[in-house]
Amino acid sequence: MHKGTRIIAFIAVFLIIATMPFLANHGQASADPEVSLDTPAVNEMPVKQCIEPLQDMRSEHMQILDSWRDRVVREGQTTYVNSVGQPYEMSLDETCLSCHSNREQFCDSCHSYSGVDVYCWSCHDGASNNSNGGVE
Amino acid sequence: MRKRDDQQTKAYESHSLKRRDFLKAALATGAVGLGGAALLRFISPADTEAADWGSPNALGAKHWGLVIDVEKLNRFANFSQIIEACHAHHNVPAVNDPKTEVKWIWQDDFEHCFEELDNAYLSEDIKAQEFLVLCNHCENPSCVRVCPTQATFKRDDGIVCMDYHRCIGCRFCMTGCPYNARSLNFFDPRPYIKEIDPDYPTRTQGVVEKCTLCVERIDQGLPPYCVEASNGAIVFGDLADPESDVRQALQSGLSIRRKAELGAGPSVYYLIGGGVPAVAGGELNA
Hints:
The structure holds 2 protein chains of 2 kinds. Chain A is mainly alpha-helical. Chain A has one domain. Chain A contains 7 helices and 2 strands. In chain A, a hairpin with a 5-residue loop joins strand 1 (about 80) and strand 2. Chain A is elongated and about 75 Å long. The N and C termini of chain A lie far apart (about 70 Å). By secondary structure, chain B is of the alpha+beta class. Chain B has one domain: Alpha-Beta Plaits, CATH 3.30.70.20. The N and C termini of chain B lie far apart (about 110 Å). Residues about 45-50 of chain B have low confidence and may be disordered.
C-alpha cells in the first residue's frame, strides 16, 4: 500500500463532498404540497369534477394545455370535447383559471414543490399579475 | 462445451420460423391490427362527434381582407378612437420611444404610406389625407417565409398569425416585412399598458407582435375592432367572394395597395374613389 493513507483519506473526502447534499438536507423533507380547491367557482359546483378525471389531470394537464395551445392558436379551433362527450372552451384564462382562480394555492403549490418554473403567467392571467398584486 | 453448442443450435432451430409460417403470422397480425382500428373507431363515438372543433359562430372565408375608404375615413372616422379600440383590447403597450414602440395599427400620410406613388405635383387634397396602416395579411407573406420557428404562419383563411409561444425574438420577420407592421417587445410590456384587459393575454419581453386581424373575434363570429370603430370607413370581408362587401366596395372606384409591386400580395385595399360608371355600349367607339 504505497501512499495508502492518502488514498483512503481522499476517498473519504470525496465521499463526504459527494454525499453533502443528502447529509445537509437529511431529516428536513419539505411537506407535501397542499392543493386548494377552495374557490367560489369550485364551491358552487354540485359535483366537483374537472374537465377530465383527477388522475389524468394530475399527470397530463401539461399535455392537454400544450395541445389546446396548438389547436387554438394554429388551427383556429375553440371547443374541446372531453372523454365523456362534454364540451369545453379551450382557454387557459376562460376555462382553467375561471375555476382555479387561486393560482398561488393551486398551480404554484405543486410547481414550486417540484421545482417546475412555468412562464404561463408572463402573458396570461393579466388581471392578477399586474401591479395590482397577486391573486386573492 | 460441445454439448452446450448443440443445445444452443437446437434451441435456435426450434425458435426459428419457416418462411411460410412467418408470412401466415404476419398476415394474421395485420388483420388483427386493422380490425382493432375499426373497433376503436366504433367504440369511441366522442371522437367522431367532435369532428367540428370550431365555434359554430365562427366566420368563414377563403381570403379575409380589408377595404379602407380613404374619403370616409378622413371625414367620418376618428383615427385615435380606432387605434385605441385595437390597442386597448389587445393590451398593446404604449411606448413613446419610436425606436422601441409597439404598434398594431397606426396613422400616416400619403407620402409615407405610398412613397412609390408620390410625385412632385401630387394633389394637395391627397397630400392632406391621413391613412390607417396595419399588417397587410399578405398572400405571400415574407415574414412567414423567414421565420425560423414557424411562430408566424398563414391560416387557411389568409390571416397571417403569430404564435407568441414559439417566437424567439430573432426579428427576421421585422426585417422581412416591407410594411414595418411588426414590433418587438424590447422589455416587459406590462408596465406600459394603461389598463390590462383580462380577456386578452399580454405579450412578454422578446417576442414580436403585430395585428392579427382580430382572429380571436373572427373565430367567435365578430368583425375586427378597427372595422367596428370606423363608422363604416373600413369594410371587412372575403376577397375571394365576388358578392362580399369588400368586393362590392372595390367595384366602386380606384383602389390602391401599399407596395403592391413587391409581390407580397397585400390584402388591405385603400379605396381612393373617382370611379366613373361604365358606359353601356362604349360611346367613344361609336
